[in-house]
Design a protein that fits this description.
It is built from ten helices and nine strands. By secondary structure, it is an alpha/beta fold. The chain has a single domain, classed as Zn-dependent exopeptidases (Aminopeptidase).
Length: 318
């Protein structure tokens, strides 16, 4: 792994904050940090303008993380968007390219800026550009999380910036290079691209949104209209509601780093985040799929088929 210098880190952060599509000819490496499954063979045209991503469903906990952890892997797993990658696994066979994380989100959160770090977590002083002062960092949920969802501290000791740098170089940067590549290939073929970033939310969050009597089933986040053309969430919402699901928009999740970073409608890249209520498919105590998992998976496959076959010509340049 090549070391990341301060200048290199700053250039990386600047590049990600001013996204440009990666050249189509650059290869995408398959690494232990993520998996890419294209809807068409490499070099062939993407059959649809849609890309799916699942950045929080990884369930690999590297030894270097666990050696520093105060919690066991099962406790930390409560932060995962468990099995979301399995729920959307059929996407490539339905014409939609798919990228999924393999490392756990607690190891490196791919839905954060790379250097969104909490200085209090580190034994050494962070470079100025890495001293993030965001609400997510304050909550202990920066690019390297300080706590799991119940507020328990993950680590038994302070980390070093070198450890953070290794996670960024080994997972965050290549994941986003690969995702950017998929978007660029799709954009080059169709003149626009649609990114759907899949997540799951605790059942308690769904209750807070819809009420105990009618908790919402899914939340669509488009950064309050800034990340995509309105036709995208409207069509997704219509299809989900036709299946009987209760759908909310932007509350409590309006979209994270991925939606904000890639969603540039003026450049004809449209990004939408979808949060699934875990009560639809998961026993949150045991983290085991419930019998309803298969039904939800089939319904999401039907949604994917509908979106893949839809007429998105209104998103093309005039």
């Amino acid at each position: 792994m090549n070391p990341l210098t301060v200048d290199g880190a700053q250039r990386s952060m600047d590049a990600m904050n001013a996204w440009e599509p990666i050249a189509v000819e650059e290869p995408i490496a398959r690494t232990e940090a993520f998996e890419v499954r294209r809807a068409a063979a490499r070099g062939a045209a993407p059959p649809t303008p849609i890309v799916f991503a699942s950045p929080h469903s990884g369930r690999l906990y590297p030894d270097d993380m666990m050696a520093a952890a105060a919690l066991d892997a099962q406790s930390i797993r409560r932060s995962e968007d468990a099995y979301v990658d399995d729920l959307i696994a059929a996407a490539p066979e339905l014409g939609v390219s798919l990228i999924t994380a393999r490392f756990a989100r607690a190891y490196i959160d791919l839905n954060r800026e790379a250097f969104e770090l909490d200085p209090a977590m580190f034994a050494d002083e962070l470079p100025e550009f890495a001293r993030a002062r965001t609400a997510r960092v304050a909550a202990g949920l920066g690019a390297i999380a300080r706590v799991v969802s119940e507020g328990q501290e993950i680590y038994a000791r302070k980390l070093t910036f070198a450890e953070a740098r290794g996670r960024i170089e080994g997972a965050h940067r290549p994941y986003h290079a690969a995702l950017g590549q998929l978007i660029a290939e799709t954009h080059a073929e169709h003149g626009f691209a649609i990114l759907i970033d899949w997540h799951s939310m605790p059942a308690a969050a769904a209750v807070r949104t819809g009420g105990r009597e009618r908790p919402c089933d899914l939340v669509l986040g488009d950064r309050f209209g800034a990340a995509c053309a309105g036709v995208l969430p409207t069509r997704v919402e219509r299809e989900l509601e036709s299946m009987g699901y209760r759908v909310a928009r932007n509350t409590p999740y309006a979209g994270g780093y991925t939606t904000e970073h890639y969603g540039r409608p003026a450049r004809r890249v449209h990004a939408l985040q979808i949060e699934i209520n875990r009560a639809l498919y998961l026993d949150e105590a045991s983290l085991a799929p419930t019998p309803a998992f298969h039904d939800l998976k089939l319904r999401l496959e039907a949604l994917t088929q509908t979106l893949a076959a839809a007429d998105w010509s209104g998103l093309r340049p005039g």
